[in-house]
TrEMBL record:
Key words of the record: 4Fe-4S, Electron transport, Iron, Iron-sulfur, Metal-binding, Repeat, Transport
Residues in coiled coil: none
Protein's UniProt keywords contain Calcium: no
Species per Swiss-Prot/TrEMBL record: Thermanaeromonas toyohensis ToBE
Record domain 4Fe-4S ferredoxin-type: where: 69-98
GO MF terms, alphabetically ordered: 4 iron, 4 sulfur cluster binding; metal ion binding
Name of the protein in its database record: Carbon-monoxide dehydrogenase iron sulfur subunit
Domain of life: Bacteria
Length: 136
């Protein structure tokens, strides 16, 4: 099984440390002129579904699985139909905050190569990086 982010809502204080860590990490990784906005929204985590509705519904191939089995969005291929936003059962695919008609979603901090920034920053252990929800 692949590791993913699990949420324990009973531990969440809505301090938004996860969102701040995500925004800072994404800003560093992208080196773009975009504002520092998180790909993660507290309570809206991407499950990187094995049979992902967002991937199945993507007409351009922008939403796809990477070699690790995580659902990734390629903004170069995105045509802005937002079908993936409509199909995501977790609400984890969101419009880009810069107004460009593209989507944004968690990429599992693929550039970090370690524990995702949001889980590392969570002070209460509400976010856990694990292979199974039963291990948390």
């Amino acid at each position: 099984m692949k590791k993913q982010i699990f949420h324990r809502p009973e531990r969440c204080l809505f301090c938004l440390s996860c969102e701040l860590a995500c925004a800072a990490t994404q800003k560093k990784a992208r080196r773009e002129e975009l504002p520092a906005w998180p790909r993660l929204k507290a309570g809206h985590l991407c499950s990187h579904c094995q049979d992902a509705p967002c991937v199945r519904g993507c007409t351009s191939g922008a939403m796809h699985f990477d070699e690790r089995g995580y659902v990734i969005s390629d903004s170069e291929k995105c045509v802005g139909c937002w079908m993936c936003i409509a199909l995501c059962p977790q609400g984890a695919v969101i419009p880009r905050p810069d107004g460009e008609r593209k989507v944004w979603k968690c990429d599992g901090c693929q550039d970090r190569g370690t524990i995702p920034a949001c889980t590392a920053a969570c002070p209460t252990g509400a976010l856990v990086w694990s292979e199974s929800p039963w291990e948390i």
